[in-house]
Amino acid sequence: MSSDISDTEPTASAVVNPERVLSQALTKRLSRPTRMTWRAIHWRKISLFGISLFLFVLAINLMKEGVHDLAPLISDTLVVTNPINSLGFGWLFAYIIMSGSPVAAVALTFFDTGIIGKLSAFTMITGSRLGASFIVLFIGFIHILRGRDRATSLGMGLLSLTVTATTYLIGLLIGAIILQTGTLDQIQPQSGVILNSINNLIFDPITHLFSNFLPNRLLFLVGLGITILSFNLFDKCLPQMALKESQVGHISRLVYQPWVMFILGAGITLISMSVSVSLGVLVPLSNRGFIRRENIIPYIMGANITTFIDTLLVAVLLNNQLAFTIVFVEMTSITIVSIFILVTIFHRYERAMLNFITWTTANNRNLVLFMMTILISPIILMLL
Asked: Where are the domains of the chain?
């Protein structure tokens, strides 16, 4: 009898301890997100970000050092002598290098060394944003050459360029008044001293090393090339942001609110410091019909404000208070125009933008006329 009972009793190793099993399960569950978090960290992109930031600061120092000999070239050969010329020069310059941010940085270095005045620097930065908007349109033409629908391929580029042009050109007048009256001259960053101390300690010796081997004009071109390289590296280190189709249902009500899209565009561009990246988040959803084009108009407005964060950094690195004011006034004037449109005439503005895009893509004649206008306009401005 006793032997039967002993045969049926489990051994110590076979006894299941509920508390132990629960503890192991919780440990496994808690450690899994930790492992996933460490795996999600892209150390390569973090390294690229550090390299791009280092090259960006170095490039600003090189351009600042090498820009002095460019004064005769800018004022005499290119005849950039007034704000209208500067607007066209910044616009055309952005076309040539296919980017707006380096041109804005160049505008501030020109101003810092006295090659152009305060108002001319302001208009040159505005021109750089007009030229940068053309890049999205250029990508749309590539899609047309690949056989895709013209309206779909050009829609986002036309919308970006048109919204940018209408808000920036109006903001140009408001900003010029603010600059002339000096209303915002007292607003300055407080941490510029620390940043410039680090800049002087690390980058001044490297800049002097370059200047010992390169003439000033070539030093400026090297700095410009490094600036473009730094922005390209920065774009590569950004995470691939995208809104999944399964998430569209959760945000479908939000995208119909202009203010929500305005804040979203400003926020994403503030984080990425790139309009092309922030627009890239919504382009696939727009092409598939998940988000309508009119919903993207306030998004572009918001993105066009915070895209100047990198230019503000240039002003701080130059340690020039008026340079910071120029960029801050640019952001303020675009904010004033965008908020006015959103509060008062948004729906009429929205219809006007969409009707213009429909007219532009209706036939080849309208499209050619539009393209000729935006290509010739900066050249005409430079000749005035």
From this structure: 43-383
pLDDT digits (tens, 9 = 90+) for 184-208: 888 877 655 556 666 667 777 888 8
Contacts of 56 (CB under 8 A, 6+ apart): 226, 227, 230, 231, 234, 310, 313
Is the full-model pTM beyond 0.85?
no
- Cα angle vertex 204, ends 201, 208, to 5°? 145
Torsion of the alpha carbons at 46, 277, 170 and 379, rounded to the nearest 10: 100
Per-residue pLDDT tens over the stretch 208-222 = 888 888 887 788 888
Q: In Å, how far are 171, 209, 215, 254, 305 from 167, measured between CA atoms?
A: 6, 43, 40, 24, 10
Residue matched to tokens 């899209």: 261
